[in-house]
Structure to design on (363 residues):
């Protein structure tokens, strides 16, 4: 009997030892992950004036499991202005404009801090994939606030939400026309009536940008609903947020790059964060306010035809295009359902049922 009693004690202690080892392993793993997170976030706490570049890594086996991040700290303290490009990696003018801005901005002339994400979706960029991240098939601009334990796209969205948006006074998300989008340059913001001060600040930055088409979107999001879009997440989190759209059809044209850079410099000048060079000094522009948007969608899959382009004016009821099947037979005539200006349209032949063919802006 005594033998069995001691045997039970030894077995119990052995099991306790196993449990202790498992707990110790879990604690070490959590500590290691916490230390990695702290190391990745340490770039935000460096006080030295100048530019710092860092790659933020995520839990994924893909070669694109990282986010490039640049922080430029000015000689004087001031606001934190965030610039994000490449949420859609096929939209090249924003990415190229930010590449130039990173090299041009002199920290000694900067008052405050710039947080810059030059290419938010590296997988989309290097794989030349419109809209989505090819690693997980998800659209980063539909993933906010994200999840730290989710797919790669969801982890990126979560990190930006928790570490970038939270530190920002102003959040600027720069986009352009993707591979199939013919787009008129415009600057946009949400008309958040529950936070009028931030909305007024966004409007002022939009108006000083030098981009003459100004688009206001309605804001009806509750505090608990997923924001989905990056700069809408910033609005939900109480930040001054807006977006620039410039460039089209997946090309990188110098005019769009310069327009974006000019807008950023004008905004920084308005906030007294950076002195404007004569090349970028705001010279004023006639503004067109487009506070209503009408979306014309496809009822069929097929080939889309239209002689119109972005920036053209259309009348309500006007025929603006048509769709054929694969044999060239017309299956849908497209008529405008509003009067206004074409903000963007499908600029390539293939369309699917339910896709937006035209976005028409009106006053």
């Amino acid at each position: 009997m005594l033998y069995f009693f001691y045997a039970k004690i030894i077995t119990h202690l052995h099991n306790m030892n196993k449990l202790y080892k498992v707990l110790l392993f879990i604690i070490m793993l959590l500590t290691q992950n916490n230390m990695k997170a702290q190391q990745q976030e340490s770039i935000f706490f460096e006080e030295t004036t100048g530019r710092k570049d860092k790659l933020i890594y995520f839990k994924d086996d893909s070669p694109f499991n990282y986010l490039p991040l640049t922080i430029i700290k000015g000689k004087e303290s001031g606001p934190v202005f965030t610039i994000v490009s490449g949420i859609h990696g096929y939209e090249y003018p924003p990415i190229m404009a930010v590449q130039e801005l990173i090299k041009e901005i002199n920290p000694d002339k900067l008052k405050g801090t710039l947080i810059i994400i030059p290419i938010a979706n590296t997988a989309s960029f290097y794989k030349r994939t419109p809209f989505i991240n090819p690693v997980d098939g998800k659209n980063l601009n539909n993933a906010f606030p994200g999840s730290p334990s989710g797919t790669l796209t969801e982890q990126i969205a979560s990190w930006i939400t928790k570490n970038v948006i939270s530190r920002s006074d102003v959040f600027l998300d720069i986009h352009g026309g993707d591979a199939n989008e013919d787009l008129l340059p415009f600057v946009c913001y949400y008309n958040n009536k529950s936070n009028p001060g931030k909305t007024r600040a966004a409007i002022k930055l939009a108006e000083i940008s030098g981009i003459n088409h100004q688009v206001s979107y309605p804001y009806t999001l509750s505090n608990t609903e997923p924001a989905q879009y990056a700069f809408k997440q910033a609005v939900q989190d109480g930040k001054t947020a807006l977006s620039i759209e410039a460039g089209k059809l997946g090309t990188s044209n110098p005019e769009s790059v310069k327009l974006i850079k000019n807008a950023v410099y004008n905004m920084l000048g308005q906030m007294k964060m950076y002195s404007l060079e004569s090349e970028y000094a705001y010279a004023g522009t006639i503004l067109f306010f487009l506070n209503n948007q009408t979306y014309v969608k496809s009822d069929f899959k097929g080939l889309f035809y239209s002689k119109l382009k972005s920036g053209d004016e259309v009348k309500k009821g006007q025929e603006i295009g048509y769709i054929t099947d694969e044999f060239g037979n017309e299956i849908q005539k497209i008529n405008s359902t509003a009067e206004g200006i074409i903000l963007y349209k499908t600029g390539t032949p293939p369309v699917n049922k339910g896709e937006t063919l035209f976005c028409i802006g009106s006053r």
